[in-house]
Amino acid sequence: MHGNESAENYLETILVLSRRLPVVRSVDVATELNFKKSSVSVAMKKLRESGHIIVSPEGYISLTESGKEIADCIYERHTLLSSWLKRLGVDPKIAAEDACRIEHVISAESFEAIKQHIR
């Protein structure tokens, strides 16, 4: 798809947190993902260098247009796939975990076909 799975997960997490919190900081991302702050710091540097996020002088993280596009795509895949799996009778926790793995590897064509079939 757009990049590696790790970067996509970080971008999706920033998107989700931005809907829940007034501002998003590296510590919020670390807490949400249960990662070390140092690991998140390295990832944020890479995302900033690749043009997917902007970090303000205060440490507030926001998605750029390209970062938001990736995050929106991954989030849509995650929510649709996890809800579909739950409707099929999969335990909600397992459905969320499986959707998280599938969302990164499924082709655009296959995802669109599933989306059309579900809706």
From TrEMBL:
<dbReference type="InterPro" id="IPR022687">
    <property type="entry name" value="HTH_DTXR"/>
</dbReference>
<dbReference type="InterPro" id="IPR050536">
    <property type="entry name" value="DtxR_MntR_Metal-Reg"/>
</dbReference>
<protein>
    <submittedName>
        <fullName>Metal-dependent transcriptional regulator</fullName>
    </submittedName>
</protein>
<feature type="domain" description="HTH dtxR-type">
    <location>
        <begin position="1"/>
        <end position="64"/>
    </location>
</feature>
<dbReference type="InterPro" id="IPR036421">
    <property type="entry name" value="Fe_dep_repressor_sf"/>
</dbReference>
<keyword id="KW-0805">Transcription regulation</keyword>
<dbReference type="Pfam" id="PF01325">
    <property type="entry name" value="Fe_dep_repress"/>
</dbReference>
<dbReference type="InterPro" id="IPR022689">
    <property type="entry name" value="Iron_dep_repressor"/>
</dbReference>
<dbReference type="InterPro" id="IPR036388">
    <property type="entry name" value="WH-like_DNA-bd_sf"/>
</dbReference>
<keyword id="KW-0804">Transcription</keyword>
<dbReference type="Pfam" id="PF02742">
    <property type="entry name" value="Fe_dep_repr_C"/>
</dbReference>
<dbReference type="InterPro" id="IPR001367">
    <property type="entry name" value="Fe_dep_repressor"/>
</dbReference>
<comment type="similarity">
    <text>Belongs to the DtxR/MntR family.</text>
</comment>
<keyword id="KW-0238">DNA-binding</keyword>
<dbReference type="InterPro" id="IPR036390">
    <property type="entry name" value="WH_DNA-bd_sf"/>
</dbReference>
